Amino acid sequence: MRASLVGKLVGSSVTRKEDRRLLIGKGAYVADVVVDGMVHAAFLRSPHPHAEIVRVDVAKARRSPGVVAVYTGEEMKAKTNPFVNFAMLAGLYSPVFWPLATDRVRMVGDPVALVIATSRAQAEDALEHIDVEYRLLRPVGTMAAALSPGSEQLWPKNGSNVVYEHTDTFGDVDAVFASAEHVFTERFSSHRQSNQPMETRGCVAEVTPSELVFHSATQSAHSLRWILAIGTSRAGAVDTLKALKANRVRLKSFGKSAKEFLTANKDELSKNDNAGMIHQVRRDPSTLRHIGRLFSNTLALDARRLPRVVAGDIGGAFGVKGHPSREDVAVCAAAIDLGRSVKWIEDRVEHLTVGGTARDETITMSMAVDNGGHILGMRADLVVDQGAYPAVPFGAPLFTRIMKVMMPGTYRPKAFELRTRVVATNKAHYVAYRGPWANETWARERMLDIVARRLGMSAVEIRLRNMYGPDELPVKMITGPTLDVEMSAKATLERANALADVDVFRTAQAQARESGRLLGVGFATFHEAAPGPPDYADALLPGGGMISSEPIRTVLEADGQVSVFTQQVPHGQSHETTFAQVAADELGVPLEQITVVFGDTNRTPFGLMGTGGSRGGPMAGGGSMFAARDLRKQIIDQAAGLLEAAVDDVEITDGTIHVAGVPARGISFADVAGAVRREGKAELASSVSYDGGRGGWVQATHVCFVEIDADTGMVSIPRYVVVEDCGDLINPAVVDGQIRGGVAQGVGSVLYEKVAYDAEANFQSSTFIDYLIPTATEIPAVEIHHLQTPSDKPANFRGVGEGGMIGAPAAITNAIEDALAHLGVTVTEQYLPPTRILELMGVIARSA
Amino acid sequence: MSTNEIGSVSAAVSLTVNGTKVEREVAVRTSLADFLREDLRLTGTHLGCEHGVCGACTVLLDGAAVRSCLMLAVQADGTVVTTIEGLAAPDGTLSPLQQSFMDHHGFQCAFCAPGFILTAQTLIDRGQSLSRDDLRSEISGNLCRCTGYASILDSIEAAITDALGPLIDTSGASK
Predict the structure, then answer these.
(1) Distance, in angstroms, between A348 CA and closest chain B CA?
(2) A542 interface with B at CB cutoff 8 Å
(3) CA-wise closest residue to A98 among A119, A120, A72, A134
(4) CA-CA distance, B158 to B124, in Å (whole number)?
(5) Whole-model pTM above 0.80?
(6) pLDDT tens, position by position, A701-747
């Protein structure tokens, strides 16, 4: 099986196909898009965290030079459908909200009005002439305030600021805790963080005579397309009925597709009860009315108005651009309304304020252990602050489901319980940020160190004692998914332990302490479902397997080039190179003969996942392999006729198709394409929908060494080691880049970055001088060691996009506690800037 | 003056951009970055923060690395400006520095690339030897969110080594 993987390209750090244009300044990022007659958008944003909008006066702004149009929240509401959540979880309240704030603002930066002008500068000038009267409401500025029954409610229909509550129990937790020799409990808190890609969000809604082209920096072109269609297809009941009547063909075809979908997914759908939707509709009956209307509006939509989404080069995202935004819908609606192309490029202050925030979470964790350090049970109480609005199309509540599955790690507790609450506060809205569930690893790995220290064990010892080893595989995690025979978390830990040489370090640490230097080492081990085993999706959500397959289409073009079409939207992950490597090896052609096509919903296969969840390599990489393999068969079939040879005798060598042993008398891919055309046959192409096969896990152990300056509290990282196993590496330089980038963001999150608010939810970090992105002087060198557990999987690729960020906060905070352990310090916060270190050391007094 | 009046005041500028003489009438409030991107359609210069921290908009102004977001176009009157579009040869051959970034997988999303490349170019042009730590400091005015900087440092180090010889070895110097 693996023989087919042995090619020249897969496994090699070939240079990137995308680099030439990017290095000479000829990339095409969304801010670079210019279309005829384009006008520019700017949003008026709320200065208050929580207030009622009493009056918005835009008269003067409408007269401002260059202004084309001004929309208030109410005016935009009349032209759009609201954001409504369809995939309701049991216990979730998901508010109905609109592109612009209507009755209330719920966060600093909430969009209140939209100005369209002939230049961005004129649009911004006009914002200053809008007069808004607010009636201030009590802000909900902390998680504690949100949980307090007396606090002002962001969404009164819910009756509480707790928008999601759920408890999952596995095994007899009470009995296990009652009989354990020790129970240790700590409350861990992580701070609000933000993705902050170097390119902000943005779009150009281009109105052409034949279609609406929506240029966007999006991670998921197809889901954005449908959110835009739903959001902007507002029509009156009479018009909708007329259109539906006129569009019988469409209705019929929709009915057919719906039936096909229901039949194909009968098993998955039957697992899902309607408890979530019932819970929602009880709180907000208007949900049903909105769903009915936007459904019929979208069905009645003139096909020419279904936006075509086009993504070009994207300047990073890390999750934030997977969420279609309120601004996207408002700009699209304005372009439709005006019949003119509209451009919106967010500035950095906006992006820091309302681009998206994440990971503001507390986890109170208890571990029941015996005297031998065996973990018998785990119990955790998780609270997530999702801020003012839920993420679209899904956000914090869904990611808590991943935390539920992953929190026990590769350890073997007999019982586990997670209570989850998601709260609303007047802070910027939640978005996915690289490994959105990562705090399951942080809390667990932090807790293991605390338990080990209290029992007098080493950090490595407690992990090795509790971790599933190869002799126990396969085995099911207590939360459901199978750890297959290739699960190698323990092997990564063992190798990391050998590399770290902790005994030697302890001697150095003791000597350093005598001279006042503080050294520490921290370990963290995790596994990630990238893509996960086949039973992973079911553990996540009933019916969760429905959207998990990955479409890839390969086509032999007339000139002999092969195109690989993907719904993935790369934004730094090098998919143009890596998918081409996989396809080229299958086809036996050089890299230059492959073109990866992405980003344009008119050209790429339909898929709602886009790029995220560390799925690009395993799912689209695997899909590219099988779609290329199938295309190769078709090419060889066709070539056999041309060569007058048996199919089994035809080979491909360096892009030439020939009879085995006679490479000199070969034909080219273009010859084959020409023959297909002359014979009047359809082009040679293959479409696959890859389900991930047997899937599998990616796993790693991180080891962080720190030195803390006892005078200043500054933490430096003299050495950082990652031992990981992601199966076969398509392009090692790309893999290492993903890991290093993830670790760098982990370093930033622990030592430098914090989205800051005061207790009244006033925003305090609106520039890069307040929100500190680490520079080259702060990020350590990262040693990376790859384990590759032997596998007979035909496509043995697993994802590495998120792992760096999952492991790093745990390893770094563990190292910091290790450096301060002799002072009796227990680290329970994730944000540890110098002042906090000095507080923990008792050098300066604790601030409130 | 009101903001609208400021928006209506313009002035003539004359400068050399990537070897070509450019003369334009611009609104006085136009930043050099917007002038390059919008008036000259040189969109290789990127705007990451527009408050002078991220360095993505770095261009060379009379040979010095400057932030084009913090400078007005009218202030660049009479200067010689090099943008990322001005580094490769006319036939498309990458400059040695650009080639080094390709060879070492320097960037991922590459939005920050123009700033890093132009900042690094000044290090080569300066011709002074430096250590890896010096190099870290020299590029610490440019932010990258994707790479963790190792691949950027490797790319620049290789290009400097080719142009000026090996970096100063400080591995035995401290601690």
Answers:
(1) 5
(2) no
(3) A72
(4) 11
(5) yes
(6) 999 999 999 999 999 999 999 999 999 999 999 999 999 999 999 99
